[in-house]
Amino acid sequence: MHPITVNPNILKMEYAVRGPIPQRAAEMKRQGREIIPCNIGNPQALGQSPLTYYRQVLSLVEEPSKIERERKLKEIFEETPGSPLREADFISDYVLEVSEKVLTLSGTGTGAYTESKGFAFVRQAIADFINRRDGFSGKLRANPEHIFLTDGASDAAKRVLNLLIAGPEDGIMVPIPQYPLYSASITMFGGVQVDYHPDEERGWALDRAELERAYSEAARQGVNVKGIVVINPGNPTGAVLGESSIAEVIDFAAQHDLAIIADEVYQDNVYTGKFISFASVLRERPVPLFSLHSISKGFFGECGHRGGYMEVRNPPQIAGSGLNLLDLLLKQASVGLCSNTAGQILTYLMVSPPEEGSAPYTLFQKEKQRILRELYEKAQMIRAAFDQMDGVECFGETGAMYLFPRLNKLPAGTGDFEYCMALLDETGLVTVNGSGFGQKPGTHHLRIAFLPPKDLLAEVLPRWVEFHNRYVNA
């Protein structure tokens, strides 16, 4: 076949978290080298166990015959004196009942297409979760018809960006550094990326003057800025935004008639402070808001099941038509028929944890607290190692699943890409160079996910410290 012409936007796309460094790591693994993949927030790939409650319900919903089988086995156990089994060896009645409830509410089980927006009962559960989280009542209550179930938050982000970018002059503001999903998607859809820089030395705080600078500079270049992305807690920085910073973004968006894309997938990964949602600060202000959440992060770590949702507030009318943006989002979702049903069920479980006092409640809470506690402890281990590295600084509180240290001292003629590649070759530690996320000119960083087991970190961190001090002083 002769060479073909393809979409040039796809050729221009870059996605550093699966770029040259992880590709080199995969090659090393094939050669038998041990690698430690800290380039991506993929908890179960690094040993985090699935939550028992989630997997019990999902397994029963996927194979409903096991519900009755479990009940019959339990009856036999109860009628058999001296059995070596215990009550705890059986799935609780509560889990069986939740599984039956899910199957009844679904109407069709997990093997059939759902509504394009996703199961109605899941969307209602999400609305209830938002109302509990943000203390909403009355007009502020979340509307299940404004909620779309998606194959992870990435799918939701791409849907919104695809709608907002109508031509090559349309721009989307993104924080620098940013998760490269946004830069790659803006490139893919033919739009303009408009960078704004949170203040690193103030803990990656947002500054209204910087937002205005970025907007005005883009406008002078003929860019029609249509939206602003905010990732809270941050990826790659881990920064957690306070209410005043969120209010600044909302004021800014209102002044310039922008939509807000609030990537809030790490809302459970706030270890020392409190998560504040954009919806809770927005309240009744008529600014379009797209809020994204996912089963991949938090303490769930169900990345491979690709579940998530998008809540839409204040959807605008579409110019030149009688349609509302919700109509186009539904049309867009309809083309893909529906998101996967396993992800939808896990999203339901994410927003509907076991009730206090129920049989699975204690174990669920124990697993949740252990995962979150260990994540924070591992982050603190890595931050302590930074203190032993010549010229390394790490700003801001610990949030999300990442640290984004600044490398103030590197050999002449090298950058953070060369550093991360050398670190990989010597220690097997897979990180992502800061330039893959964007950064202020003249600065160098890397992102590391603090997901490996503590014993593995205890082994590799001294090797990293030794490598770093030798490398930067070479």
Description:
With 474 residues, the chain is α/β, with parallel strands linked by helices. The protein folds into 2 domains: 8-47 and 364-472, Aspartate Aminotransferase, domain 1, CATH 3.90.1150; 120-351, 3-Layer(aba) Sandwich (Aspartate Aminotransferase, domain 2), CATH 3.40.640.10. The chain is built from 16 helices and 14 strands. The protein has helices at residues 8-12, 20-30, 52-62, 65-78, 93-106, 120-134, 152-164, 180-188, 208-220, 243-256, 278-282, 325-335, 341-351, 361-386, 416-427, 454-472; strands at 36-37, 147-150, 170-175, 192-196, 224-231, 259-263, 289-294, 308-313, 392-393, 402-403, 406-407, 429-430, 432-433, 446-449. A 7-stranded mixed sheet has the order 2-8-7-6-5-3-4, sandwiched between helices. A 3-stranded antiparallel sheet has the order 10-14-13, covered by helices on one side. Strands 1-12 form a two-stranded parallel ribbon.
Topology readout:
Blueprint: H1 8-12, H2 20-30, E1 36-37, H3 52-62, H4 65-78, H5 93-106, H6 120-134, E2 147-150, H7 152-164, E3 170-175, H8 180-188, E4 192-196, H9 208-220, E5 224-231, H10 243-256, E6 259-263, H11 278-282, E7 289-294, E8 308-313, H12 325-335, H13 341-351, H14 361-386, E9 392-393, E10 402-403, E11 406-407, H15 416-427, E12 429-430, E13 432-433, E14 446-449, H16 454-472
Parallel strand pairs: 1-12, 3-4, 3-5, 5-6, 6-7
Antiparallel strand pairs: 2-8, 7-8, 9-11, 10-14, 13-14
Helix pairs in contact: 2-15, 3-5, 6-13, 7-8, 14-16, 15-16
